[in-house]
Amino acid sequence: xxxxxxxxxxxxxxxxxxxxxxxxxxxxxxxxxxxxxxxxxxxxxxxxxxxxxxxxxxxxxxxxxxxxxxxxxxxxxxxxxxxxxxxxxxxxxxxxxxxxxxxxxxxxxxxxxxxxxxxxxxxxxxxxxxxxxxxxxxxxxxxxxxxxxxxxxxxxxxxxxxxxxxxxxxxxxxxxxxxxxxxxxxxxxxxxxxxxxxxxxxxxxxxxxxxxxxxxxxxxxxxxxxxxxxxxxxxxxxxxxxxxxxxxxxxxxxxxxxxxxxxxxxxxxxxxxxxxxxxxxxxxxxxxxxxxxxxxxxxxxxxxxxxxxxxxxxxxxxxxxxxxxxxxxxxxxxxxxxxxxxxxxxxxxxxxxxxxxxxxxxxxxxxxxxxxxxxxxxxxxxxxxxxxxxxxxxxxxxxxxxxxxxxxxxxxxxxxxxxxxxxxxxxxxxxxxxxxxxxxxxxxxxxxxxxxxxxxxxxxxxxxxxxxxxxxxxxxxxxxxxxxxxxxxxxxxxxxxxxxxxxxxxxxxxxxxxxxxxxxxxxxxxxxxxxxxxxxxxxxxxxx
Length: 544
Description:
By secondary structure, the chain is of the alpha+beta class. 19% of the residues lie in helices and 49% in strands. 26% of the residues are buried.
């Protein structure tokens, strides 16, 4: 064996030996120690690879010199051909010291050097440490013909050109245990809004401060610990089951208000999967004079049976929620003497049919029925995420009225270069408490948003978002209150894929016109006491 082959083998063996104790010691070292050790090893590999390259060059020069002095005989040529397989057993790596290193791969008695990229090392570090980081944000600049831009009824008219906030979500996930088929991960998510009007907008408690921040997730999730559902995720902490979002309208058809909870997800049962959670979400109940509140302990049960196959590429999900109060004796007394609003239990049932379409398109059809405070959330003319209170506050004389809504959302290809997204919502309620029109209200509303776009290529789209909505609330006294408007947004987007709803990052240049037809529920007007506005701007949206 010549010297170059020996050095390649020794180098490969040293790398293999260095990596082996790293796995053994991983459980005893901190994250910082592991990274420091890996950096040291990588630096050592770079030096050895550089030395290997120099030795190979030196041997090539010696071989070339020997060839020039004494040409090989035909006998030598025959010997070289016979041993070509052995000669090729050691492959000369094309190494860039800053990008890859050499490691050994044994194949019987024939050692072989293979290249490993920095991406491979990064993957090794990620899997060894067990840490991941993901997030989302949107941000942008805009102006209008009436001074500062203002958002109006984005939950009915759509988001494009009609959202002026800088929202973000950041999630950190650290694996803390992985052994014998059992894993445990600690997860923390914080989200909020970054102000886009003033330079020095600090986070704080001031109600006028648009900079807000909260920890929406802080929980431990495990897998493999439940003997009856080893494949399921079992978690405890501040967390909730996955939300179902109407992405074009930026509200949730199905979500859970939660302060702390326990839940199980992805439990394979029969033809579908079961999710279940028990959540706490206390609310502050107002006195009838709105001068005082009382903290009422409230909990909710959330059950879901998902992904039931129906036909080709079609599935059904069935879901139910029930929220109830755990009242103290004093709170019961306050309700009985009518000094505080009575808090009532509330429920909601949901059915979703999802149909997959060509080229990763899809459409979801949702039917929801609810009573009491969940029904009240259906009556909101803009954002209509299901909730049992207005934020953290509960008030109003909620009756046993019922509300329904039908929802369609999705995206499909109308032609090879034309894609369209839709969000259509019809809502109806009878004898419900409305936060806009009061107790014992009836309401009807319809929202329609479509977004067709022309696909120039993978990175460019031009489209238009057209929206219209109308809602009528009838009060207990028989008075009709109307809210309606329409919106047109023309935009061009720089993208990284053709999907309207599923590809990000995206930078969109837009011009938007909104005209309010009726505002009897909101009394909203833009600056200058105007009922219409033109806005222009650019917005970036990204998730990773």
